[in-house]
Design goal:
Length: 148
């Protein structure tokens, strides 16, 4: 009898044969990758190898055209958009904003999926978010190579 895997050993993201394209142009071909809970993964690859595309698929900004993608053991497409936004944060490489925004305010936008609407969400959150008293845990880190 084998012991159940600990939460730290559980797969958080699992991609098998993942493909994605922009129109008829393939951007990700057959990616196999796994990231365990508690790990920080750096996605490495040459320009045009599919790094940003992979992250867009995980964040559901772009739909996969093939393969499977599981998040915490569930097919990603079975999760609601709100649930995905509560579990996955995505900041693109560049954004053309029509108004200036402070970094702290950009980070605080990540709280929006927890609010019933955009009415008065800050008053419902612990003050540590507004004060910026954030902490980070030490986590294991490993690298995931992405390439065509």
């Amino acid at each position: 009898m084998s012991a159940a895997p600990s939460p730290a050993d559980a797969l958080l993201v699992e991609a098998r044969g993942l493909t994605a394209a922009y129109g008829s142009s393939p951007a990700l071909r057959g990616l196999d990758a796994s990231i365990r809970a508690g790990e920080v993964a750096a996605v490495l690859g040459e320009n045009g190898s599919g790094k940003s595309t992979f992250l867009k698929v995980v964040a559901r900004v772009l739909r996969a055209s093939g393969g499977t993608l599981r998040f915490a053991g569930r097919p990603l497409e079975s999760m609601s958009r709100r649930e995905t936004a509560q579990r996955v944060a995505y900041v693109p490489q560049s954004v053309d904003l029509v108004f200036p925004i402070r970094s702290r305010d950009l980070v605080l936008q990540g709280r929006a999926p927890y609010a019933p609407g955009f009415d008065d969400w800050k008053s419902r959150q612990p003050s540590r978010y507004e004060q910026g008293n954030w902490t980070a845990d030490y986590v294991r880190m490993r690298f995931v190579a992405v390439g065509l």
